[in-house]
Specification:
Strand order of the largest sheet: 3-2-1-4-5-6-7
Low-confidence stretches: none
Number of helices: 13
Structural class: alpha/beta
Number of strands: 13
CATH superfamily of the largest domain: Glycogen Phosphorylase B
Number of domains: 2
Shape: globular
Distance between the termini: 16 Å
Radius of gyration: 21 Å
CATH architecture of the largest domain: 3-Layer(aba) Sandwich
Order of helices and strands: EHEHEHEEHEHEEHHEHEHEHEEHHH
Helix content: 25-40%
CATH topology of the largest domain: Rossmann fold
Mean pLDDT: 91
Length: about 375
């Protein structure tokens, strides 16, 4: 089967990683072409999967994004029409659009079957209505990464829900906490207000320095391409709040083991409704308890046995959750092991592959 996969970014964050897992599933029995807007580290990872995967880089790829503006929206249909000349009618058996940013590619004739895999929650009601209408008008199959994502869209009763899954990187690991060592909290994710880094700083200001001396906070990630200044803003906020001794910006790492092995507890305090953060699954796979906000897909899989759920921007709840782990180190091993058991039962790559293949089979025969 000839499949065209269209993806809007070339980094290695959540949706990018899931794309790599999907490519590993599909490449063995299919002829795969991947269309992306620019070069980046994601392409190196794709090449490692198979040299048979064709990669097309086109800088004019029409993508819907937060900075597109009124002018960009009006010009988008014309760009799509122009771009449709890239391939002829029925060049492929299936078009697979990864994320809503590629939604306009549902409106081409390169294949009879179209699938869109949605990794986003659109909180703006006007935009959500627009995306929902675009999905409704085009005969396509929609895969959502969580029930939270599905429920936010209109006309979604027939949409599929597919939880992400990831490979088991450390199958024989054990979690141990030394009572006399500093407790390390890790927050992985893009440096942006909605991911909760500034929420964390506001919370740490309310905790006594004598308590903060017992722990460290590592922030792994990088600024989004359209807001590169966020790294400087975050660094300045750490200095202004006199948290330099406790909080460290660690940058982005392609090796997730480097991130999670350093962690005792994972922090995922998104202010936005996070669709289904891969970081939650990664923390569970590495036997790490988590503190999450309860406004997205993560709350569907995190249980009280290994995680604490807080409300977005609720500093008191966040503070109490952090203090719980500082004061109850003995619970971390137990909660981490329970997190791993939940991962093994529901969120491995093998389970994801089985569920993905079942959905794809149903789609192809609809």
């Amino acid at each position: 089967m000839k499949i065209l996969i269209i993806h809007p970014s070339v980094e290695l964050y959540g949706a990018d990683k899931i794309l790599l897992y999907i490519l590993k599933i599909l490449e063995k029995e299919n002829d795969i072409t991947v269309l992306v807007p620019k070069n980046g580290i994601l392409l190196d990872e794709i090449k490692k999967i198979s040299s048979n995967i064709k990669i097309i880089v086109n800088h004019d790829l029409p993508i819907v994004h937060s900075k597109i503006g009124i002018k960009g929206l009006f010009s988008l249909p014309f760009r799509v029409i122009k771009f449709n000349k890239l391939f002829s009618r029925n060049s492929f058996d299936l078009i697979y659009c990864n994320t809503l940013a590629t939604i306009m590619f549902l409106y081409n004739k390169w294949a009879n079957k179209h699938v869109i895999h949605i990794h986003e929650i659109i909180e703006n009601h006007f935009l959500n209505f627009g995306f929902s209408i675009l999905l409704k008008l085009k005969t396509c199959n929609v895969i959502c990464v969580s029930h939270h994502v599905k429920q936010k869209l209109l006309f979604s009763s027939k949409y599929f829900v597919l939880y992400n899954g990831i490979p088991d990187l450390l199958p024989n690991q054990t979690t141990t906490i030394n009572e006399n060592e500093k407790l390390t909290f890790v927050l992985p994710g893009r440096y942006m207000e909605k991911k909760g880094q500034f929420f964390l700083l506001d919370t740490l200001k309310t905790i006594d320095d004598e308590i903060l001396k017992k722990c460290s906070f590592l922030l792994f990630g990088s600024a989004p391409p359209n807001n590169p200044e966020n790294t400087i803003l975050l660094s300045n906020a750490i200095k202004e709040n006199k948290l330099n001794d406790f909080v460290q910006l660690c940058g982005f790492s392609t090796n997730i083991a480097d991130i999670y092995i350093k962690a005792d507890v994972l922090l995922i305090p998104s202010l936005m409704a996070d669709p289904f953060p891969t970081t939650v699954i990664e923390s569970m796979m590495f036997s790490k308890p988590v503190i999450i906000t309860n406004n997205g897909g993560a709350s569907e899989i995190v249980k009280e046995t290994f995680g604490i759920k807080i409300h977005p921007n609720n500093i008191e709840e966040f503070k109490n959750a952090i203090l719980f782990f500082i004061m109850n180190k003995s619970q971390i091993n137990k909660m981490g092991n329970m997190a791993r058991q939940e991962y093994l039962h529901n969120l491995t790559l093998e389970i994801f592959q089985t569920n993905f293949n079942a959905i794809l089979k149903e789609i192809l025969f609809i």
